[in-house]
Amino acid sequence: MTAFAPIPDFARGPDIPSSGYLVTELGGGAYGITSGVDNTVFLVTRKGVVVVDAPLDLDDRLLQGIEEVTPKPVTHLIYSHAHADHIGAAHLLARDGVQIVAHELTGRFIEEARDSRRPLPTETFSGTRHELTVDGERIVPEYKGDWHQAGNLFIHLPEQRVLAAIDSFSVRNAPFFRLLFAAHVPAYFDAMDQMLEYDFDTVVSGHMDLFGTPEDVQTNREYLHDLRSAAAEALRTVDLREAGAGVPDNNKQAQLKVWMDRVVARAAELMPTGWEKRIGGTDIFLSDNLNAVAWSVFID
Ligand SMILES: [Zn+2]
């Protein structure tokens, strides 16, 4: 088994109690909740609770966490996108009268999935913006591009200065795997700039135990920039024909694989030193991150 460096203290959140979840007050009636693996946000309004997503790993502990804060019922559920790890517990919240809001593309993915854990939205919107007002509280979902999955939303709570940008990055850690499975890598890069155009103090990014700040988004943007520079330089210097020289000429697929592995290895060498002092998990995800970035630099 590959040994990885321990995640440094600055890249970890507080310990999760034995209940299996931790609720953090974010101000103005907004609360973050994490299981340690998945996180999300809910907003307590005058009459009820508006919840963003219902992560699979939180499961029924999401309702326990809400009940810890308020006896009010869940009135609205907003899907950030269609992936099961973020909305796979939605069936537990989808009682009669609960409004489920999503982009219409998210609705289509859920229809295709035929997954009883993910109830269809009751209200979808097309286009880029959909402002909701619930009990006088403004909630602004916006679709700005396919940075993670078509239909993915930034969900802004302007009064609370909270931005839910689920699956956008890992706070104080390297992005998971291939940039959290970004649907379109250039859009993923753009998403960091789009996030920084919002007024917010707290970003809820969907995974692990930390909620972030604008500075954390900037750090991720800087890390992505370094990944892209390293990948671009490696693509300039690692030659496809030379890299594939040891592979039989009638096996072009194997040549491509060997070449890209060399590009990634070279890009890893070209990465500036010291990132492990700023974010956790670089050694875990560097090759996956660079593979996604290098292919994007090559083909996008
Ligand atoms: Zn996702």
Explain how this protein is built.
With 300 residues, the protein is α/β, with parallel strands linked by helices. It has helices at residues 61-69, 84-87, 104-113, 185-196, 214-237, 240-243, 252-270, 282-299; strands at 22-27, 30-34, 39-44, 49-52, 74-78, 99-103, 123-125, 132-134, 137-142, 154-157, 162-164, 202-204. It has two domains: 9-213, Ribonuclease Z/Hydroxyacylglutathione hydrolase-like (Metallo-beta-lactamase, Chain A); 224-299, no CATH class. The chain is globular and about 65 Å long. It contains eight helices and twelve strands. The site of zinc ion (ZN) has 6 residues, from loops.
Which secondary structure elements does this structure contain, and how are they paired or packed?
Elements: E1 22-27, E2 30-34, E3 39-44, E4 49-52, H1 61-69, E5 74-78, H2 84-87, E6 99-103, H3 104-113, E7 123-125, E8 132-134, E9 137-142, E10 154-157, E11 162-164, H4 185-196, E12 202-204, H5 214-237, H6 240-243, H7 252-270, H8 282-299
Parallel strand pairs: 4-5, 5-6, 6-7, 11-12
Antiparallel strand pairs: 1-2, 2-3, 3-4, 8-9, 9-10, 10-11
Helix pairs in contact: 4-5, 5-7, 5-8, 7-8
The protein binds zinc ion (ZN).
Ligand types: zinc ion
Label the structural class.
alpha/beta
Largest sheet: 7 strands, mixed
Topology as a string of helices (H) and strands (E): EEEEHEHEHEEEEEHEHHHH
**Overall form:** globular
Distance between the termini: 34 Å
- Just name the CATH architecture of the largest domain: 4-Layer Sandwich
Tally of structural domains: 2
Question: What name goes with the CATH superfamily of the largest domain?
Answer: Ribonuclease Z/Hydroxyacylglutathione hydrolase-like
